[in-house]
Amino acid sequence: MNGILKKDDYTYRHNIGVSVLASLLAKWLGLSREEISLISMGGLLHDISKLYIPDEIHLGILFHL
User: Fold this and answer.
1) Are the CB atoms for 47 and 14 separated by under 8 Å?
2) Which has the closest alpha carbon to 5: 14, 60, 43, 62?
3) Would you say 28 and 59 are in contact if contact means Cβ atoms under 8 Å apart?
């Protein structure tokens, strides 16, 4: 997560939010602690590939469409 925070604060905050919401939904569904933990980790890591996209491409997509 530290790498995501260094690269993009928005993505970092987004991943935290996804993780929290996914965990709450999993708990509401009555899943086990282990399943909730795995789902939470998935929420944190779902955008990890953004670390490997050069800023020129990532920012170009955001501002040139």
Assistant:
1) yes
2) 14
3) no
